[in-house]
Every structure is written in structure tokens, then in C-alpha cells.
Specification:
Length: 138
């Protein structure tokens, strides 16, 4: 198996196992203060480091608590990964907050507000739907 393919496969297995452990394995109450989703897993080529990107739906205070809880559980998770995946050396687990979903939700909310404003005003501002800019006749 090609090294790149092996790393992808290990990342997918880690994602599955960590997802399971988030639901049933971690007893730290801080982790359960918000809805935690794994958005991406990056594993180093030597399989010694694993960066897990998570999205946390919660307010800022709870989000900080969740991330602290996840970092505190990283040693336990490393051991569980080694046991479950039968790896000689388990990767060091690092959690990284992924704000991509949060930003996407904000953009969608803003687009919805713009759409409502247009409906209320009943018209589209001049030039906003033109395909050519005014200077394109040069």
C-alpha cells in the first residue's frame, strides 16, 4: 500500500474511533457542553502525530470548556486509539478548533438578511445584477 494511501486510511480510522469515543468514551463533562463534530483529521506521514479538527456548536465560554476537556482527554484517547487500532505506537492527539462551519453559518445568515431586505424594498438596486461593469465598454 502506498504511504499516502496508508496515512489517509489511518486518518479515516482515527476519525471513526474518535467519533465513537466522543459519544461513549469520554466522561469529562466539559466535552459534553456543546455539540462536537469532527470536521477533518490530519495524520503525519510517520503516523506519530494526529491533528483532529473539531467544530463546537456552543457559546464562547462553553466552546473553551469543550476544547479544554478534549485536550485533557488526549492522553486517554491516544491509549484507546493504540488499543483499538492495534498500532505499535499511537499518534499524539492534538485538537484544533475549526471555525469553518461557524463562518459558513454566519455568511448564510447574512445572505438571508440581504434577501429579506430586497423583498421588503421590492426592488433590486441598479447595477447589482448587471453582468458587465460600467467600465467594460472601453
Amino acid at each position: 500500500m502506498a504511504p499516502g494511501r496508508r496515512v489517509e486510511r489511518v486518518a479515516a480510522l482515527i476519525r471513526r474511533e474518535i467519533s465513537e469515543l466522543l459519544i461513549n468514551g469520554i466522561r469529562d463533562e466539559r466535552v459534553h457542553q456543546g455539540m462536537v463534530s469532527i470536521t477533518h483529521v490530519e495524520v503525519s506521514g510517520d503516523l506519530q502525530h494526529c491533528k483532529i479538527f473539531v467544530s463546537v456548536l456552543a457559546d464562547d465560554k462553553a466552546r473553551t470548556e469543550v476544547m479544554d476537556g478534549l485536550q485533557a482527554a488526549s492522553g486517554y484517547l491516544k491509549g484507546e486509539l493504540g488499543r483499538r487500532l492495534q498500532m505499535r505506537r499511537s499518534p499524539e492527539v492534538i485538537f484544533q478548533l475549526d471555525r469553518g462551519l461557524e463562518k459558513g453559518t454566519t455568511v448564510l445568515h447574512l445572505l438571508g438578511e440581504l434577501e429579506r431586505e430586497r423583498e421588503v424594498k421590492g426592488s433590486i438596486p441598479p447595477g447589482s445584477d448587471d453582468t458587465e461593469s460600467p467600465d467594460s465598454n472601453d
